[in-house]
Amino acid sequence: MHLTQDLELFPEYTVTQLLFKDVKNATELRKMAVNGEIKGALINPSMVVDAFQILVAANKAIHLHKSGKMKTRSLYSEIIFSLSPTSNISEAFKRFGISDSDSAVLIVLVHNKDETLNIDNIISKVDGQQITVDRVSDLNDVAKIKKLYKVAPQEEKCGSLLDAVVCRMATKDVA
Amino acid sequence: RCYNKRFPKLYCHPEVDEKLTRRRATQEVRSILRCRRAGINAPVVYFVDYTTHCIFLEDIIHSVSVRDHIASAQASEQNPQHLQTLADKIGEILAQMHDEDVIHGDLTTSNMLLVSGAEDQNMKLVLIDFGLSYISALPEDKGVDLYVLEKAFLSTHPKTETLFERLLKSYTASSKKSSAVIKKLDEVRLRGRKRSMVG
């Protein structure tokens, strides 16, 4: 049910995404992410348009990690930061990370191709129902996404909301 | 939409001078973003590598360049009205682009793509190759942008003077700032002609 994809630019890495709804232990999950019990990025699905958006964020984070140019302290926090259209780190965590009251969570894992990932271990820690990642569209808030990413109506003539979001993520450093 | 269906195109700025490369990449990205925000079709930017100044863009598939389209339309002596509509559309898009103060820098019919499946009214035109682009409000820069297109257009597509005139008419009608730009275009044309007379 989870989604595992390779990164074309960094073929030694693999990105796995897991989506959960009706989550009852967001507070505990947050603690586990902080203390390293869960080695992944915990993301708020309401801000996610599509799994590709996560892939783009992971790609950028890995690139910055490899070139020693991350703005945050860890690869996982950098993934969360890369999702944001602005350069304000705490705002990025607030908007894209999960809070204690959240009932849905998207977990992003980055691992080496050779590593065998214990997905079941992670799933067992979540008190919620796992669903396929493409169903993030059931959980997201399109109006909120458009507002945060400042997507103008005329831009949607050019392409999808996903295109607009990805563009901003990729160009925020110079825009 | 699945990631596998997207084939990113890689553009690297080949200049030797690092400062110039960095500036070019930044300008390219800013121009594309400005166009898209205004509803002008340009490729999606997926990733910018600021260490090598390489840009990963959407590869526009299922498309034909305006250059090839005009060439084949002329070869088959097809419906001329069809090309008129195309000229109108191009003029309109360039007007929008210049009104956003984006100078393309390398306007040719090879840098305009027609996405297939779109017929006449629903024609989707995508501008590509923003590698020499920059932001400028100067009518002179916009005039030169059009002059570059004019020269490329007329040399690539024989006997299209009327068609290009139609393109400019559409540009003039669509742009809020066109009179100053066309004035500059006329000046640049004159300068060009003078040079060849002396040479």
Order of helices and strands of chain B: EHEEEHHEEEEHHH
CATH class membership of the largest domain in chain B: Mainly Alpha
Strand content of chain B: 5-15%
Rounded to an integer in angstroms, the radius of gyration calculated over CA atoms of chain A is 15 Å
Radius of gyration of chain B: 17 Å
What is the percentage of strand-forming residues of chain A? 15-25%
Low-pLDDT ranges of chain B: 1-6
Biggest interface pair, counts? A-B, 31 and 27 residues
Number of helices of chain B: 6
Mean pLDDT of chain A, nearest integer? 94
**Stretches of chain A where pLDDT falls below 50 for ≥5 residues?**
none
- The SSE string of chain A, one letter per element, is EEHEHHHEHEHHH
| CA-CA gap between termini of chain B | 56 Å
GO biological process, one term (chain A): tRNA threonylcarbamoyladenosine modification
Organism (chain A): Sinocyclocheilus anshuiensis
Main location (chain A): cytoplasm
Subcellular location (chain A): Cytoplasm, Cytosol; Nucleus
List keywords for this structure.
A: 175 residues; alpha+beta; PF0523-like; 5-stranded antiparallel beta sheet; 5 strands; B: alpha+beta; Phosphorylase Kinase, domain 1; Transferase(Phosphotransferase), domain 1; 3-stranded antiparallel beta sheet; disordered N terminus
Quick synopsis:
The complex is a heterodimer of chains A (175) and B (199). By secondary structure, chain A is of the alpha+beta class. Chain A has 8 helices and 5 strands, in the order ββαβαααβαβααα.
Report on the architecture of this protein.
- The complex is a heterodimer of chains A (175) and B (199).
- Chain A has one domain (3-172): CGI121/TPRKB (PF0523-like).
- Chain A contains 8 helices and 5 strands.
- Chain A has helices at residues 26-35, 51-66, 75-83, 89-96, 119-125, 136-139, 142-148, 161-171, and strands spanning 3-6, 13-21, 41-43, 105-112, 129-131.
- In chain A, strands 1, 2, 3, 4 and 5 form a 5-stranded antiparallel beta sheet that branches.
- In chain A, helix 2 (51-66) runs parallel beside helix 8 and helix 3 packs across helix 4.
- Chain A is globular, with a radius of gyration of 15 Å.
- The relative contact order of chain A is 0.24.
- The model of chain A has no long low-confidence stretch (mean pLDDT 94).
- Residues 1-6 of chain B have low confidence and may be disordered.
- In chain B, strand 6 and strand 7 form a beta hairpin.
- In chain B, the strands form 3 sheets. Chain B has a 3-stranded antiparallel beta sheet, covered by helices on one side.
- In chain B, helix 3 packs across helix 5 and helix 4 (139-156) packs across helix 6 (178-198).
- Chain B has helices spanning 18-37, 66-75, 80-99, 139-156, 161-174, 178-198, and strands at residues 9-12, 45-49, 54-57, 63-65, 102-103, 112-115, 124-127, 134-135.
- Chain A binds chain B through residues 5, 8-9, 50-52, 55-56, 59-60, 63, 67, 69, 152, 154-155, 157-160, 162-164, 166-168, 170-171, 173-175, and chain B through 1-3, 6, 8, 26, 29-30, 32-33, 36-42, 44-51, 56, 58.
- Chain A: Pfam families: CGI-121 (PF08617).
- Chain A: Its main location: cytoplasm.
